[in-house]
Design a protein that fits this description.
The protein has nine helices and six strands; from the N terminus they run ααββααβαβααββαα. The chain is α/β, with parallel strands linked by helices. It has one domain: Uracil-DNA glycosylase-like domain (Uracil-DNA Glycosylase, subunit E, 3-Layer(aba) Sandwich), CATH 3.40.470. Strand 5 and strand 6 form a beta hairpin. Helix 1 packs parallel to helix 5. The structure holds uracil.
Length: about 220
């Protein structure tokens, strides 16, 4: 019997990242990229997830919010940020005049880590080429990274989120440079309601910059 071809589940982290980069680069539309993510077998989280969770909202929106990973509700429904923290995020966005018509929402991971554990660096690396390509295809004017993992992955910072929240950074990849704001994760706000004031300041800073950019056309 011929030896079985190695399954993607046993790819090394480096091989998974290369496979993801190649699959992502071959996509020239958001729909193609969504199909490529759903077909990707290089992230171990897929084995325990119910759904692949990619994005919701308007891919032509000027603001892209990027969180960490689907939780239980997102995994069940196949849509990001639909559970309790997503509902808080929606209320915060509504307060600055934003909803699914003018925001695009995604995560750095497309499958739920079991029990909502922290993602491993291998899992993050396997998914990163896809979120990078999604940003490239959507071309938002501004990015908001919700929580430490999104900020560390996309902005390359190791500083704690409570330290860098509210301070404009840049998302850079090749020729793409997009202003990016690290935000406290809404799940953290649910646990620590005392920091809502800071979160509100950050939303206002986002709203002001968006208004300026939209005014420039
Ligand atoms: N937390 C996240 O970071 N993303 C979701 O989609 C849901 C909860």
């Amino acid at each position: 019997m011929p030896p079985a071809a190695p399954s993607q589940a046993v790819l090394s982290a480096r091989e998974a990242e290369t496979a993801a980069s190649q699959a992502a680069a071959a996509c020239s539309t958001v729909a193609e990229l969504e199909a490529a993510i759903k077909a990707f077998e290089g992230c171990g989280l897929k084995a325990t997830a119910t759904n692949t969770v990619i994005a919701r909202g308007n891919p032509a929106a000027p603001l892209m919010i990027i969180g960490e990973a689907p939780g239980r509700d997102e995994d069940a429904q196949g849509r990001p940020f639909v559970g309790e923290s997503g509902q808080l995020l929606d209320r915060m966005l509504k307060a600055i005049g934003r909803d699914e018509s003018n925001v695009y929402i995604s995560n750095i991971l497309f499958w739920r880590p079991p029990g909502n554990r922290d993602p491993s660096s291998e899992e993050i690396l396997a998914c990163k080429p896809f979120i990078e390509r999604l940003i490239e295809l959507v071309q938002p004017r501004l990015i908001a990274c919700a929580g430490k993992h999104a900020a560390a992955t996309l902005l390359g910072t190791n500083q704690g989120i409570t330290r860098i929240r509210g301070r404009w950074q840049e998302y850079r990849r090749g020729a793409v440079v997009i202003p990016a704001m690290p935000l406290l994760h809404p799940a953290y706000l649910l646990r620590q309601p005392g920091v809502k004031r800071e979160a509100w300041q950050d939303m206002q800073a986002l709203a002001e910059k968006l208004a300026r950019l939209e005014g420039q056309g």
